[in-house]
Predict the structure.
Amino acid sequence: MSEQDGFTERLRQARTRQGLEQSKEPAVKTVGTGPWGIGFRAGVEVVSALVVGIAIGYALDHWLGTWPWLFLLFFVAGSAAGIMNVYRLFKPRGGRPGI
Amino acid sequence: MAAEGQAIDALSQFALKPFLGGLGESVRLSQSNGHMLIALGLIAALMMWGTARRAIVPGRVQALAETAYDFVHDLVVGQVGEEGAKYFPFVFSLFMFILVGNLLGMLPYAFTFTSHIAVTFALAMLVFLVVTVIALSIHGTHFFSYFFPEGAPKLLAPLIIPIEIISYLSRPVSLAVRLFANMVAGHVMLKVFATFVVMIGGAAGIFGIFGAALPLAVNVALIGFELLVAFLQAYVFAILTCIYLHDAVHLH
C-alpha cells in the first residue's frame, strides 16, 4: 500500500515537472551569491543604465546640435533608471526573487 | 607564465591569435572562434552520445545529458511558466554554450571566449532582440504599455517613460558586462597569482620555494572558485533570459 502511495506521489511530481499539472506554489529559487556578488550586480545595473542614458543623450545631441542639454537630461534619466534597476533587483516580484 | 622585466603581464592572455597557427591564419579564424567550435562540438557530442543508447538506467554520459536537460527545463518552466516550455531550446543552447565556454577556459592553454565583450554582447543582444520580438508578437502594440506602469499618474508620463525605456535598453548591457567582467576578473587574478609563484620562486633560492607555496595555494583555491563562477555566470545568464521571457510573455 505504501509502495502504491509512493508511486502516486512520484507520478504527481513528474507530471508537475513536465507541466502537465498546474503547481500551486510559485517556484522560489535564490541565486547563491555572497555580498560581493550582490554588490557587483547592483553596480553593473547602475553603470549599464548610466551608459545607455549617456549614449542616447550624446547621440541625440550630436544629431540635433543641442549639446550639452539633452546629454545632461539623459544623464539624469540614466541615473534614475539605474536606481530603478537596483530597486527591481531587490524587490520580490510575485513570489520570485528579482534577479 | 610571462614575467618579463618584473612586469606582470595579465592581459596578453586575452589577445586574439590565429587558430592552429598557419591553418587558422589562412582562413582568418582566431582561437576564440576555434574554441567556440570546440564548445559546439563538445555540446553536440554530449547530447548525441548521451541520448544515443536511451538506457533506462543511464550511464555517466546519459546521466550528465539528462541532468543538464532537466536543470534547464526546470529553470524555464519554473520562471516562465508552463507556456514557456517552447522557449526551452533557446535557453538550453545559450546555457550550454556559455557553460562549456567558461569551463573550457579553465583548461591550460585554452582560451575563454566569454572573456571578450564582443562575444558576450552579441549573446546579450540576441537575447534582447528575441525577447522583444516575442513580446511584440504576443502582445502587439499593447507591449508598449510595459513602459508605463498601471496606476501611475498621467502627469508623470514624460518622466517615467524615458526612464523605463533606458532601463529596458540597459538589460543587454548589464547582461553582457556581468559575464564579461566576471570572466576577465577571474582570469586576470589567476594570471597575477601564477606570475607571483614564478617571480618569488625564482627570486630567493630555498626561501623562494617556500614563499612561492603561498600564491600557489591561493591559485589552487582560485581555480575552485573560478569553476563555481563559470557555472554561476552561465546560470545567471540563463535565469535572466528566463525572467526577461517571463516579462515578455506576461508583461509585468
About this structure: Residues 33-99 of chain A form one domain. The interface with chain B takes residues 17, 19, 22, 27, 29, 31-33, 37, 40-41, 44-45, 47-49, 51-53, 56, 74, 77-78, 80-82, 84-85, 88, 96, 99 of chain A (CB under 8 Å). Residues 59 and 71 of chain A are 8 Å apart (CA to CA).
